[in-house]
Amino acid sequence: MSRTRFVLIQPSHAGNVGAAARAMKVMGFDDLVLVQPRWDDVLERDETLERASGATDVLRQARAVDTLDAALSGVSYVMGTVMTPRDFGPPTYAPREHLASVAPTGQGVAFLFGSERYGMRNEDVYRCHAALRIPVSPDYGSLNLAAAIQVIAYEWRQALGGFDLPPVPAPERADAAAVAGMLRHWEQALVDIGFLDPAAPKKLMPRLNQLFNRAQPTPEEIHILRGVAKAMAEAAKKPKP
Q1: Per-run averaged pLDDT (10 residues), the chain, 241 residues
Q2: Partner residues linked to 115 by β-bridges
Q3: DSSP state, 115?
Q4: Which of 69, 92, 238, 241 has the highest count of CB atoms within 10 angstroms of its CB?
Q5: Which residues form the tRNA/rRNA methyltransferase SpoU type domain (predicted)?
Q6: Which domain holds residue 192?
Q7: 3-class secondary-structure state, position 34
Q8: Whole-model pTM?
């Protein structure tokens, strides 16, 4: 039984088929079925391949069928994407809310997407166990087919546990002695340029100390800051014109 299938009903734009394959692949899905596509050779058309942007393996194993029955073979739970809930149709949910409850069941699922021109037909919606409505702006709710597939694929992947991102190595932090040495360098430079009065320093240096402790500079940044202090001191020594 296929774990996850994406079904496009009567897709009319070859580019959307390629973009759908790309959207699926980045979320780790590869079972794509087209029901009565406009083009018999849609899986090999130039626009399809271009928009797939490397997801050609998904296209190679995708298949076109004549009926929705054939597309849903081996699937036990069907969800259709709709903008408007249908009278007498299945209950309508936001994807995140519903998919979190579906994921633990272990069922083979299919997501149905209607034609770009008129969306899903009522008879196709009635075949579904649930309808999914993506929350969008009430002022403009028109989603491109591939964009809708990307949203649903992302939400389903998250419901299944998501992908672990590679750990980001923590940057090396300068040690306390390096920060203290840099601050002494800056203190002298600030005196040299007349910004700091050593007779009345107030709380300037403790404040700078706290600032750099919060910033947690790296050794390279300490080197840059020392270079700035050196340049300030040298500029202060130059005779004024």
Answers
A1: 85 93 95 94 92 93 95 93 79 93 87 89 92 90 90 95 87 93 94 90 91 94 95 87 70
A2: 119
A3: B
A4: 92
A5: 5-154
A6: 176-237
A7: strand
A8: 0.76
